Amino acid sequence: MGTQADKLRLFELLYEAREAALDEKAAAWDKLHAEIDRLRSGTSFSRDQVKELLYKDGYREYAKRRKLAERANP
Amino acid sequence: MTPRAETLQPELLLSEQASPDMRFAARQMAQVNRELAQHNRKVLRTTSRWLDLYEYVKMLEEDHLLASEPISGHQHFLLGTVAILRGLGVLLLAKLQNDDAEQLRALGCTYRDLSACVDELADLERALKSDLSEAMIAEMNQKLFPGGHPS
Questions:
Q1: How many CB atoms lie under 10 A from the CB of residue B16?
Q2: pTM here?
Q3: Hey, are the CB atoms on B141 and A2 less than 8 Å from each other?
Q4: Burial of B80 (0-12, 13-18, 19+ CB in 10 A)
């Protein structure tokens, strides 16, 4: 189980995994999955379900804010 | 019955009003599909083309994400494109696993990096099709993040 800050951290890790350079993809996804596995420990949720939750509940808005900020300050 | 790979026609996803971006992506998917079906030794070129298309689809997704208003037909096209590209990626991984995985070094990545790209598309496809209810989202948040939603 985690906190509000943990969820934000998952958004951050998911964003970094999706934006990672090709030769850093596997490492970035491993990092995200390790954090998801830690947080879902003791629950019945699968890793895929947790990622689905992230996409459905806040990640898109988070990614949009990051993208717009990066465009404003390249 | 499993359809033969050569019969896959991503162009069928497109309406008459499809944008040039959509047409480009559909043509590239058809080309990757043809190359995978040829059983030749050009797997490195096919992988390179697949990776180009992967980046292109991510750009389309970004356009979708940042659009101030929904783009007509974009959501369905994106879902279909992601699904087909993921499927082609699975076939590509199988082919690489069988014989040519070491060639990926020439593209500056590993088999696991490529596999992560395919998994990313699977996640995205799942998210685009997701029917998680508000009640389920609330329950998951309560169990996973008792602290509530980040602002």
A1: 4
A2: 0.83
A3: no
A4: buried
- Name the phi and psi angles at A43, rounded to 5: -110, 175
Residue B38 main-chain phi, psi, to 5 deg: -80, -15
**Complex ipTM:** 0.92
Cβ(A45)–Cβ(A1) below 8 Å: no
Amino acid of residue A45: F
In a domain, B150, yes or no: no
Question: What DSSP line would sit under A15-42, residue for residue?
Answer: HHHHHS-GGGHHHHHHHHHHHHHHHHTT
Residue positions counted in chain A: 74
In chain B, the number of structural domains is 1
Q: CA nearest A5: which of A35, A26, A31, A25? A: A35
The two structure tokens encoding residue B36: 């995978």
Q: Chain B contact for A31, CB < 8 A?
A: no
Cβ pair B81, B10 in contact under 8 A: yes
pLDDT, tens digit, 9 for 90 and up, residues B71-95? 666 778 888 889 999 999 998 898 8
Q: Structure tokens of A15?
A: 């964003």
CB contact under 8 A, A53 and B137: yes
Chain A residue at shortest CA distance from B54: A22
Q: Does B148 contact A4 at a Cβ distance shorter than 8 Å?
A: yes
User: What is the extent of the structural domain holding B122?
Assistant: 5-144
